[in-house]
Amino acid sequence: MTHWPRAPRNEIGTPLRRGLRHWAPVALAGLLTLAVALPAGAQTKAADNAPPVVLVQPAELRSLAPQSEYIGRIAVFDKVELRARVKGTLGKREFADGAKVTEGQLLFTIDPAPYRITVNQKRALRDGAQAALINADAQLKRAADLLKTNNVSQVAYDQRLSEQLQAKATLDDAEAQLEDAELQLSYTRITAPIAGLIGRAAVSPGNIVGPDSGVLATIVNERQIRVLFSVSQAELLNVRRDLRAGEHLPVRLRLADGKLYPEKGKVDFIDVTVDPNTDGQMARAVFDNADELLTDGQTVRVIVEGNEPAKALVVPQPAMAIDQTGPYVYVVDGKGVVEQRRITVDFVRDGMIAVASGLKEGDRVIVRGQQRVRAGMAVEAQAAPAPAGQPKR
User: Fold this and answer.
1) CA 337 – CA 321 distance, rounded (Å)
2) Which residues fall within 8 angstroms of residue 229, CB to CB, at 6 or more apart?
């Protein structure tokens, strides 16, 4: 038998030539992959090292009137609490809770039967007193005629005069009692003394009510509204100066949803005493409330605006951050490096911060992207888009 020479083998018994042919493509592919992967990794590292992009807006001078904000509470001018003035069974309710009512509109009734009976009784007494007075007048006239002819004594005439005066007094008392009874009867009809909105009824029909039963319902006239708020002594001087000059400070209201009330009001009264707990004085502003959006007892933010606009260096409110030291902003210098600036805020108005110190006109303040930067970091600054309705700078 002829034996062919065997091919060289490696340590695990695999023919050496076959092993080389098998692994050569794999090794080549690995080398190619490594060659391609290295440039990609270098590109990723370069992208990670790129400076972050931030939006900036320059600090600018604007004409703004200073303003201050206070917590205020709304109070209506006209408010009536309806109460029962006589005792009796409450009848049918003549209104819907929260409805508008007109002056003189019937709202509640109390069972009038007992009071009507009393009126009839008092009227009968009045009629009897009138008859007695008519008779007393006739007796006095007859006695006067007889006295002229000396057919009656002076004593008898004086007696008739006394009877006539007593009858007149009795009639006056009967008429007063009848008037009182009719007044009590009228109280069984509870009507609206003012026009406005009525709240919910506190007592249901069928219950016994009286003067001690409390409030049956409340009517408020919200066509005009007062807002009460406390003003500090420091700011009160400017308010009083404007009021003495015959001017009224314009006042705005910020509602619970953050929106401004469309109507402007005016400060028309400042209290004459100072609250020792707050060192402030109560001020009052008046607003028209034709749409009845404002409600009695509602809490609002009162914005008191100054009358004289002044130049102020302003930046958008989102640019400001606050830490334990106080407010600050980030500014990008001409080399694209971030700098932290401590600022002093004068006032805030319409989303803009009036800066008293810490910035100068033209400083590029970061308004978006502050969370990704720190002082000394290089950034790519891009101009922030102008708000809707404002031209681009």
Assistant:
1) 19
2) 70, 71, 72, 73, 282, 283, 285, 302
C-beta neighbour count of 91 within 10 angstroms: 16
Global pTM reads 0.56
Q: What is the pLDDT of residue 296?
A: 86
CA angle 162, 165, 166 (to 5 degrees): 85
Q: Which domains does the chain have, with CATH numbers?
A: 53-64+311-383 (2.40.420.20), 68-76+222-305 (2.40.30.170), 80-198 (1.20.120)
Cross-strand pairs, 181? none
Partners of 110 in the beta sheet?
90
Query: Contact at 8 Å (CB) between 283 and 239?
Result: yes
Total residues found in the chain within this entry: 393
Lowest mean pLDDT segment, chosen from 22-36, 117-131, 220-234, 320-334: 22-36
Per-residue pLDDT tens for 282-318?
Answer: 888 999 988 878 888 899 999 887 656 678 899 999 9
CA–CA distance, 13 with 374 (Å, rounded to integer): 64
Q: How far is it, in rounded angstroms, from Cα 270 to Cα 365?
A: 41
Q: 94 by DSSP, 3-state: which? A: coil
Distance CA 265, CA 251 (A): 5
3-state secondary structure of 380: strand
CA dihedral 189, 195, 200, 205 (to 10 degrees): 10
| Per-residue model confidence as pLDDT tens digits over 125-164 | 999 999 999 999 999 999 998 988 888 889 999 999 999 9
Q: How far is CA 393 from CA 60, 64, 365, 384, in A?
A: 11, 19, 14, 9
CB 42 within 8 A of CB 49: no
